[in-house]
Amino acid sequence: METGPRPQDAAEALRASEQARAGLAHSLVTPPGHDVVIGAAVAVQVATMALGLAVADAWARGVLVAGVLVFGVAAAVELVRFRRRNGVRLDGFTSRAVLGTDAAASIAYAVGAATTYLAASREVWWLVGLLALAAGTAYALAGRRWLRRYRDQPAERAGAESTALLVLVGLVAVVGLVLLVVSSS
Amino acid sequence: MSAIDPLINPPARLVLMTTLTAVTEAEFATLRDRLDVSDSVLSKHVSALGTAGYVTSRKGTHRGRRTTWIALTSRGRGALAEHVAALRALIDGI
């Protein structure tokens, strides 16, 4: 007849399982240069978006689209590098640290985009570059902060937002970009 | 009241499933090394848990070689939560 575990065995089993989970979470690291790549990609995207919105020429809209592509390619490359380095896929990292759905990253991006656009609309180009760099730096630091918090609570933070929400946000972004480009041509 | 799940009760399986809660999916060799078990032992546990619908495995690649990626299912997540609750109740003497 099979008997259940003794309380001390149960406690040991739980401790070992939580230790293994914490060990995996703490072993996950970003690939070398990840923060620089993501920060630079966001800076380029913010600066080109500000330029594309502030300058009423077709070439400026082309620059805006190119900026989005630069970020998309950089994000995809970094996610592949993360998976190759760690041997895991982590949707929370994809969503919150790379695509910026973490609150701190979202705020950094929104504030950076708005202030960079204001600078571009006044044609203060040195300030556009400076603010875009600041936005990229803050975005990258928010990603680093998310990873630290993930290590403390891996099970709670491993998941991403729902697929439906991500698809909706993506669709809105693509439709907005298309409308922007079409309206300028 | 939550009950001990005999399928998750072996310590190695509890460790495997708990570890998988930290990621979306993990590559076979990464899990094997983290859990410090042999290929055959991990395969047997994954097979048993997969038959119960607690984990899924799919063929893929990692660093240019073919491998297996393993993930916890929502059913497995629920079963693990119940099992852990039962263990905690046992520890607390309820």
TrEMBL record, chain A:
<feature type="transmembrane region" description="Helical">
    <location>
        <begin position="58"/>
        <end position="77"/>
    </location>
</feature>
<protein>
    <recommendedName>
        <fullName>DUF202 domain-containing protein</fullName>
    </recommendedName>
</protein>
<feature type="transmembrane region" description="Helical">
    <location>
        <begin position="97"/>
        <end position="118"/>
    </location>
</feature>
<keyword id="KW-0812">Transmembrane</keyword>
<feature type="transmembrane region" description="Helical">
    <location>
        <begin position="163"/>
        <end position="182"/>
    </location>
</feature>
<feature type="transmembrane region" description="Helical">
    <location>
        <begin position="124"/>
        <end position="142"/>
    </location>
</feature>
<keyword id="KW-0472">Membrane</keyword>
<keyword id="KW-1133">Transmembrane helix</keyword>
TrEMBL record, chain B:
<dbReference type="InterPro" id="IPR027395">
    <property type="entry name" value="WH_DNA-bd_dom"/>
</dbReference>
<protein>
    <submittedName>
        <fullName>Transcriptional regulator</fullName>
    </submittedName>
</protein>
<dbReference type="InterPro" id="IPR036390">
    <property type="entry name" value="WH_DNA-bd_sf"/>
</dbReference>
<dbReference type="Pfam" id="PF13601">
    <property type="entry name" value="HTH_34"/>
</dbReference>
<feature type="domain" description="Winged helix DNA-binding">
    <location>
        <begin position="13"/>
        <end position="91"/>
    </location>
</feature>
<dbReference type="InterPro" id="IPR036388">
    <property type="entry name" value="WH-like_DNA-bd_sf"/>
</dbReference>
